[in-house]
Amino acid sequence: MNLIVVGASYRTAPVELLEKLSLVEGPQALPRLLSGGELSEAVVVSTCNRVEVYAAVPAFHAGLSHLGEVLSELSGVPAEQLANTLYVHHGQDAVRHVFRVAAGLDSMVAGEAQILGQLREAYQQSTEADAAGKVLHELLQQALRVGKRAHAETGIDHAPRSMVSAALDHAVANSADCHRWLIIGAGAMGALSVAELTRRGAGTVTVVNRGLDRAQRLADAYGATAAPIERLPELLAQADVVITATASTGHVLTTENVGAARTGSGKILTIIDLAMPRDVEPAVAELPGVRLVDVARLGTVLDPATAGAPVCPRSSADREVAAVEQIVAGEVDSYASWLRGAEVAPTVAALRARAEDVVSAELRRLTQRRADLTDEQRADVAHTVHRIVQRLLHQPTVRVRQLAAEPGGEAYASLLRDLFDLSVIPGSPDHTTVADVPDLKGGA
C-alpha cells in the first residue's frame, strides 16, 4: 500500500486557484475519490491556506492520476494548470509532511494550533464516510498526537497562536484607529476572531451573520454585540476594522457596498479577509481609504520563522522550531516502523491460514482412514495437531514482524510469500473499522 499526499497551499498556488480548490470538500469529494478503486483510503483537508488529500493507493501512478483528475473535475481547474501548482509527497516524505502540518510547521504562522482542529474535522468526515482504513486511521491519530506533543513539550506557542492573531497584529500595527470591530461570519474563524479580540481587550465588537441566532450565541459568549445582516451597510460605515470569515461561495463585500458605506467617511477602513473562497472582491483594495488584508497579503507579510518575533527573539524561535522538527523526525521513524510491521501482517495471516488448511485436510483424511476413532479421540488429535502447528509458527511469525519493522524489512515479507507460495490480498485482513477508532471528540 502506497501513502501519498497531494495538495496546494499559499506557498505553491495563487489565491485565485486556492479559491477554486477550496470548493473540494470532504463530504462531496470522498465518494468520487474512492470510486474506481485507484484510492483505497482518503482524507481531504481544506483550510483557508491549503487544500490537501491524504490517500492510501494500491498503485502509485494510477492513484496519483485519478486524484489529479478528481481535483480538476471538482474544482473546475484544468489538469495541466493544476499540475504546475500541486505538490506530491510519497511514502515516508508523506508521513513527514502530515506530521509537520499537524505541528504547525507548515502553517502561515509557525506553531499555530488551529490546524489540529481542522485535521480532526477532516479525519472525522473521512471516518463517517468510511473512507479511512487502517493506514490513514493510524496516520491521522499519530499526526494529532504529534501536534499535541509539539505544543506541550516546546515553546512554539510563544509565536502568535493562529493566523487570526497574526492578522490582528498586522492590522493593529498598520492602523491608527482600531476601536470599532465588525466580524462578518459566526463560524469557526469568526468565533476565533471574537475570542482573540476579547482576550486582547479590544473596543466595541459586533458580530453579523446571516443567521442572527448563531451570531447572538457567539456574541453572548464573549460579551460582544450581535446584529442582523440587514444592518451591514450601517455597520460598515461605522467600523474601523472588519474581519470577514463566512462560508459564502460569492463575495460578501464588494466595491459597491463598501464604497457606498464609506463615501465621505474620511477614515481608514482595514478589512481582514480570512475566508476561502475570499469574501471580499479584490477590487475593494483600490477604493480610497480602504486597506485590504487577505490570505495572499498575509502570505507575503507573515514569515513562519519570524512571526513570533515581537514576543520571542529570533534565536529562541529558531530553537523551538528545531525542537518541534526533532519531535517530528522521531515520530516519522516510529510510524515508518509501524507501517513496515503492518504490511507484513497480511502475509503472516496468509501463512497461518495456509497452515490451518493443511491441518484441516489431513484431519479429514484421518477421519476417512480411521472410522473406528470416537468423537472424543478425533477431537484430541485435532487439538494436538493444531497446538503443534501454532507452536511451530509462533516464533517465526513473531520474528518476521520484528524484522519487517526495521529499515528494509519489507524483503522478509516478500521472502515468506515466496517460500510458502502465499497469495496475499493487499490491505487484508487487518482492516480497522470505525468502531476501532478512539473517540474523536476527545482528541487523538
Automatic annotation (TrEMBL):
Binding site for NADP(+): 185-190
UniProt-listed CDD domains: NAD_bind_Glutamyl_tRNA_reduct
UniProt keyword terms in alphabetical order: NADP, Oxidoreductase, Porphyrin biosynthesis
Active site: 48 (nucleophile)
Principal EC category: oxidoreductase
Annotated Pfam families: GlutR_dimer (PF00745), GlutR_N (PF05201), Shikimate_DH (PF01488)
Catalytic activity reported: (S)-4-amino-5-oxopentanoate + tRNA(Glu) + NADP(+) = L-glutamyl-tRNA(Glu) + NADPH + H(+)
Keyword Glycoprotein: no
SUPFAM superfamilies according to UniProt: Glutamyl tRNA-reductase catalytic, N-terminal domain (SSF69742), Glutamyl tRNA-reductase dimerization domain (SSF69075), NAD(P)-binding Rossmann-fold domains (SSF51735)
Domain Tetrapyrrole biosynthesis glutamyl-tRNA reductase dimerisation positions: 324-422
Domain Glutamyl-tRNA reductase N-terminal: 6-154
InterPro entries, per the entry: 4pyrrol_synth_GluRdtase, 4pyrrol_synth_GluRdtase_dimer, 4pyrrol_synth_GluRdtase_N, GluRdtase_dimer_dom_sf, GluRdtase_N_sf, NAD(P)-bd_dom_sf, Shikm_DH/Glu-tRNA_Rdtase
Residues of the site described as Important for activity: 97
Residues binding substrate, per UniProt: 47-50, 107, 112-114, 118
NCBIfam families in the cross-refs: hemA, PRK00045.1-3
HAMAP family: Glu_tRNA_reductase (MF_00087)
Free-text comment about domains: Possesses an unusual extended V-shaped dimeric structure with each monomer consisting of three distinct domains arranged along a curved 'spinal' alpha-helix. The N-terminal catalytic domain specifically recognizes the glutamate moiety of the substrate. The second domain is the NADPH-binding domain, and the third C-terminal domain is responsible for dimerization.
Function of the molecule: Catalyzes the NADPH-dependent reduction of glutamyl-tRNA(Glu) to glutamate 1-semialdehyde (GSA).
Family: Belongs to the glutamyl-tRNA reductase family.
Misc remark: During catalysis, the active site Cys acts as a nucleophile attacking the alpha-carbonyl group of tRNA-bound glutamate with the formation of a thioester intermediate between enzyme and glutamate, and the concomitant release of tRNA(Glu). The thioester intermediate is finally reduced by direct hydride transfer from NADPH, to form the product GSA.
Name of the protein this chain belongs to: Glutamyl-tRNA reductase
Organism the protein comes from: Catellatospora methionotrophica
Record gene name: hemA
